[in-house]
């Protein structure tokens, strides 16, 4: 988004729903983030590998953060609103009321989260069909996608959920519906998680073959039969009710949304890097890999022609950058794995006390502790005899086996703070090695990647960034605006407002003007 000939006082609101929290930002037409707010959201794990949320709780959090970021602003100057969110499955009945996705019949918990692995048997049967749609998800469907979860609901909660359901939404589409009353789905969600093809639409034979012929019979009304590109303006904009909830004016343009990783990818991949001596300067945008790292890491690479990478999702047409194919590699838990390793260690209480005494986060404390104990050697050498295999929640890419488990080798009998710091380092290194593994698979299939663009919560951790640079041997670019995912969401709102012709125009103009980059 750029100043150009536009008046300076036009604002856009971006809302980003991550796994653990909801964030909002007020962004001006130059792409500068003027206000930020965040709010945690609830998560339930009623049994192992079942992860649930509440769409009402998430919407309430969206309202809290939006009201905060627009405080003190003339609401007439807010031109557009964009949402991105995790690709979780929201279930509503025919009157749009939440339906339970659990045996306890708790309808408050009506969201099956993206990282839920309850539908293993269903996804195995789907993969056994070898249907041609599977070619477009890396050859193997993930249990984290929507088709196996829908089949699980049909097979396990027939009366309490499936028969009563009127609407199955990807979470980003739920939010845009809640804001506008328009049930149109984003091409991004449907292509990436629901087997929809931007070129051919739904494939009846797939849904019939896997036992979900119900959707074909009702012309896909429950999962979406009106599909719009991300950034398209929805209906008449914000409804009066949603405007009251969010503290905005009715009628503001609301965009068809994006999955969170895709918003982050959109926020960083087109960045202008001129003058920083980076290898990707002067190379096509297809030489860049956007890595969005939060609870999970998503590796977004684009190409002019479709590239089929075994074990890497896609190729998806126009799902992130219009007119380009997208391959999406991923690691299902990265931030969550680091938190798990650190918080579960015997020395964690001591770490907390020491970090608090220094007014530091536990990660800043661990990073400086590693600097102390490494002495003269490079920090990476501290783990010569301690290694982590990071697939504690399975391997999304490139092995595409979500039944895999994690592993630690080289443990000793001691469990002091040094051991915790070194285990933390080994975990970060293992995640960076996983990124290298994904890049190697993408390059073997035809991608040519020279530079990484990181964003998301983990990109605030200098050790995580440095290990990615060291282990991949590629420069890592960080945007000056750390909340790039939110900039991506705001770009959607700017596009829907009509102030910019397309998401690419917003991206090209704004990121040039507003961002600077550092090469690690
Ligand atoms: N300043 C920081 N230093 C180190 N790690 C961080 C920092 N901020 C966030 N993280 C890590 O990033 C992860 C969450 O990233 P975030 O993008 O907020 O996730 P999500 O979008 O999935 O909610 C957590 O594992 C957290 O520990
Ligand atoms: O599958 C994904 C994107 O396609 C993401 O892993 C999922 O949406 C969760 O994102 P986050 O780690 O930011 O919470």
Mind explaining what this structure looks like?
This protein has about 525 residues and is α/β, with parallel strands linked by helices. The protein has two domains: about 10-255, Nucleotidyltransferase, domain 5 (2-Layer Sandwich), CATH 3.30.420.40; about 275-480, Nucleotidyltransferase, domain 5 (2-Layer Sandwich), CATH 3.30.420.40. Helices cover about 35% and strands about 20% of the residues. It contains 17 helices and 22 strands. The protein has helices at about 55-70, 120-130, 145-155, 160, 170-180, 185-195, 205-210, 215, 240-245, 260-270, 335-345, 350-355, 360-375, 415-445, 460-470, 485-495, 505-515, and strands at about 10-15, 20-30, 35-40, 45, 50-55, 80-85, 90-95, 110, 165-170, 185, 225-230, 255, 260, 290-295, 295-305, 315, 325-330, 385-390, 405-410, 450-455, 475-480, 515-520. The strands form five sheets. A seven-stranded mixed beta sheet has the order 16-17-15-14-20-21-22, with helices on both faces. Strands 1, 2, 3, 6, 12 and 13 form a six-stranded mixed beta sheet that branches. α2 packs across α3 (about 145-155) and α12 packs across α13. The radius of gyration is 22 Å and the shape is globular. About 55% of the residues are buried. Mean pLDDT is about 95; it is low at about 510-520. It binds adenosine-5'-diphosphate (ADP) and ribulose-5-phosphate. Ribulose-5-phosphate binds near residues 18 and 259.
What is the topological layout?
Blueprint lengths: L10 E7 L3 E8 L4 E8 L3 E4 L2 E4 L1 H15 L8 E8 L3 E5 L17 E2 L7 H9 L17 H11 L1 H5 L2 E6 H10 L4 E2 H7 L10 H6 L4 H4 L9 E2 L11 H7 L6 E2 L3 E2 H9 L19 E6 L3 E7 L9 E5 L7 E7 L3 H9 L4 H10 L4 H12 L13 E3 L17 E3 L7 H29 L5 E5 L6 H11 L3 E4 L4 H13 L6 H12 L2 E3 L1
Parallel strand pairs: 1-6, 6-12, 6-13, 10-11, 14-20, 20-21
Antiparallel strand pairs: 1-2, 2-3, 4-5, 5-8, 7-8, 7-9, 14-15, 15-17, 16-17, 18-19, 21-22
Helix pairs in contact: 2-3, 10-16, 11-14, 12-13, 13-14, 14-15
The structure holds adenosine-5'-diphosphate and ribulose-5-phosphate.
């Amino acid at each position: 988004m750029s100043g150009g000939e536009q008046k300076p006082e036009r604002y856009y609101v971006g809302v980003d729903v991550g796994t653990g929290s909801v964030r909002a930002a007020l962004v001006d037409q130059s792409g500068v983030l003027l206000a930020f707010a965040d709010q945690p959201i609830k998560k339930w794990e009623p049994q192992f590998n079942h992860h649930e949320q509440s769409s009402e709780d998430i919407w309430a959090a969206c309202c809290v953060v939006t009201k905060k970021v627009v405080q003190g602003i003339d609401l007439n100057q807010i031109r557009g609103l964009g949402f991105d969110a995790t690709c979780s499955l929201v279930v509503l009945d025919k009157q749009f009321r939440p339906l339970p996705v659990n045996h306890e019949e708790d309808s408050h918990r009506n969201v099956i989260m993206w990282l839920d692995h309850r539908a293993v048997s269903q996804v195995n049967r789907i993969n056994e069909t070898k249907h041609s749609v599977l070619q477009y998800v890396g050859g193997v469907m993930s249990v984290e996608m929507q088709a196996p979860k829908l089949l699980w609901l049909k097979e396990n909660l027939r009366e309490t959920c499936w028969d009563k359901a009127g609407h199955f939404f990807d979470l980003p589409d739920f939010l845009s519906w809640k804001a506008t009353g328009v049930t149109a789905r984003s091409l991004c969600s449907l292509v990436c998680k629901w087997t929809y093809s931007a070129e051919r639409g739904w494939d009846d034979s797939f849904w019939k073959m896997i036992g979900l012929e119900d959707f074909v019979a009702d012309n896909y009304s429950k999962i979406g039969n009106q599909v719009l590109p991300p950034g398209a303006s929805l209906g008449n904009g914000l409804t009066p009710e949603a405007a009251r909830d969010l503290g905005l004016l009715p009628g503001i343009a609301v965009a068809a949304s994006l999955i969170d990783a895709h918003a982050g990818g959109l926020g960083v991949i087109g960045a202008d890097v001129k003058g920083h001596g980076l290898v990707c300067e002067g190379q096509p945008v297809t030489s860049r890999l956007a890595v969005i790292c939060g609870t999970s890491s998503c590796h977004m690479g684009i190409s002019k022609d479709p590239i089929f990478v075994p074990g890497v999702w896609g190729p998806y047409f126009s799902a992130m950058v219009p007119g380009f194919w997208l391959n999406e590699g991923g690691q299902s838990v990265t931030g969550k794995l680091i938190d798990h390793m650190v918080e579960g260690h015997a020395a964690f209480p001591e770490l907390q006390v020491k970090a608090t005494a220094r007014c530091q986060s536990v990660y800043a404390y661990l990073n400086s502790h590693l600097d102390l104990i490494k002495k003269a050697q490079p920090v990476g050498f501290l783990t010569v005899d301690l290694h982590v295999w990071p697939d504690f929640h399975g391997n999304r890419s490139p092995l595409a086996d979500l039944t895999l488990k994690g592993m630690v080798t080289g443990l000793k009998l001691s469990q002091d703070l040094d051991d915790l710091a070194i285990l933390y380092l080994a975990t970060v290194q293992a995640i960076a090695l996983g990124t290298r593994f994904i890049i190697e698979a993408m390059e073997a299939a035809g991608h040519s990647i020279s530079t990484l663009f990181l964003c998301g919560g983990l990109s605030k951790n200098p050790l995580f960034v440095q290990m990615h640079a060291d282990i991949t041997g590629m420069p890592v670019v960080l945007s000056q605006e750390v909340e790039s995912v939110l900039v991506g969401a705001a770009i959607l709102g700017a596009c829907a407002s009509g102030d910019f012709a397309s998401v690419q125009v917003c991206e090209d103009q704004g990121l040039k003007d507003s961002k600077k980059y550092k090469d690690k």
